[in-house]
Structures are given as C-alpha cells and as structure tokens.
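Input record (one chain):
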Amino acid sequence: MSPAPDAAVPAPAPAPAAPAGVVRAARTPWFDLTECAGHRTVRRTDDGTDGGALAGDAPMTLGTYHDLASVTKVVATTTALIRLVSDRLVDLDERAGAYLPAGCPEQVSVRDLLLHRAGLWEWWPMYLDPRVPAPRYPPGRERHYSDLGFILLGRVVETVTGTSLDRAVAELVTGPLGLDDTTYARPAGPEVAMSALDDRVEMRMLDTSEPYPVPFRAADFAGWRRGPVLGQVADGNAYHAFGGVSGHAGLFSTVPDLLRYATALSRYEEHDRLWRPEVAREFFRPGPDPGQALGFRTYELVLRDETVTVLGHPGYVGCVVGFVPGRDVAIALASNRLLTPGVPTPTDALWTGLLQAITHRSRTA
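The corresponding structure, as predicted from the sequence alone:
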C-alpha cells in the first residue's frame, strides 16, 4: 500500500561508512589469509566542524598497533583467569567479593561476572562516579553485557596476584605467550592507528541517556578530549578513570600478535605448562545464554562442510579476535571504524564479512 500523499515518509537511515583502514587475517590448516588496506590515521580537509570531510593520512600496515577496546576482556582478563583458576588461586564459583575489598554485590560469583550474569549496569561513567552502582537487574538470572563486570574481574586479578593489572597480564599472558606487541596503554613504535576523532561518543551517551539512562551529562566532566585520540585508549573509563589500564579495555596490539594469541588458544592442549586443559575447556564450554561462554563470545563458522564454534570477542573501536579450540584456526580483524563523520560500520558487520570470506576460501582451498 502506498502512503497517502500528505503522509510523512521516514527518510532512509544513512548507510554505514567504511572504516578508514582494515587488516584481516586468518590461519587455518588449509590456507592463510592476510589483507591490509586503507589508512591508520585521517586528517580533516575542511574547517574542522562536525560532519566535515576527512581524508586518509598515514597508511595502514600489518605492524600497526590498534586499540583493542573490549578485546581486552579476553586477551588480558579472561586468559589471566584461566591461569589463576588452573593454579587454584581463583574459584569460579566463589563469591567475587571474597577477592575484593569492596564494590561487588554480595551474591555475585566470579562465574557470574564472566558470563555477564551479575546484574550490573552495562556501563557507568566512573570518571564522574567511581563507585560501582548497585545492580540494575536481579543477579544470576540472565545475561546483560557489562563493562563493570570486567572492571571488577581485573581487580580480582590484581588482588590475587598482589600486583598491578598490567604487570599481572604481562607475567601471566603476554610474556609466556610471546605477545611482544601486546601492551597496556603504551603502544610501542610510531605506527598506531587513530582510535577516534575525539570523545564525542561518550559525550553523546551522557547527553542523550542512550543506550543507558545514567544520571549525568557531558557538562558534568571537564576532561574531555576534543582532538584525535591517537596512542591512547578510546574508552572513557579506561582512559579517564584508570590511567589506560583496566580489565575491560586498555590493551593495544598488532594483528600478527592477535593471531599468535588466537593460535595459542586454538592449540590450548599444547600449553599445559600454563594452564590445565580441563580448565581451558570449561572456559570454552557454552554458557546458559546464547553466544556466551566464560568471558568469550561464540560465533558459528562454516568450514568446508561442517559448522564449528569460534570463541573470541569484539571491541568497539573495530577489532576482533577469534579461534576454534583444537582445530588450529586463528582469526583476527583490526580497523579504525570510528574515523568517520557519518555512521560507522558496526564491528559485528566487519567480523561477519571476514567469517564469510573464510567460509568461501575453505570451500575452494
């Protein structure tokens, strides 16, 4: 049926803009895939106003460092906990509060936090209010993806190891796995992808109360970054509240290092000097909610004529890492999708495109 002549016809939603630069890589038993295109930084070609034109500047390379954002949740925090559980220093079913001096609801377990079932707020501007607020939902009943849960898990790692989170991750994860390019808050070398144009995303979240109705406005904070975010973590809590080091965000890495990480997790049984394989398998096992294991997100991937489960995690800035346990399949994606005055392409869309490309290659290899 056509609308009446005087009826308002909604304007079509603007098409998402492609990232300035993308690196895609996969390692499988049948083929390797490596693609690198575009630019790691951009510059304005107008008066600098919002919505103005941008042009690519420095080229993207395989050696470019990227802001991993929430990929930190698995590469750093979840993997550190696999080691600590393997060493019997952390019990998944123990109250998280047993490892923390304060800030965690009494009935919430470490497992609840890893499954995003703690009932916590999804997001809270801790640079404005450093306290973890009371749960938004009944704990233990259903999944609500939460940065706050992984902020608390990072604190669990610090408490149990008796050292700072960045040092604990270096000793438990990046050092033993040879991830020389993976570091908190201090990307080595000059080749760093620009993470964002400025702090506009979080400013908008506060001013619109979307997607979370927090009781603050952008004017309540004076420390916003008004220029390009380069070599600093884009996430506001990680940068403004935690000095670039947190359990939910803060890591920088390169795509080759992400592949090394994913390969190690796919060959987890070969690393029994680091973790007990049965503990790793428990982390890899599907949880009670679709698409969620302990810390890891899950995805379906068709390889030749079978469907396998990829474990991994996306990051808001535009990176994803994934692996298939026991199958020697490692996948990594890095982009700077936020470098656009328009609507950025969602990270999940970029990841889906890579998984589809892997499916196609597997059928023709």
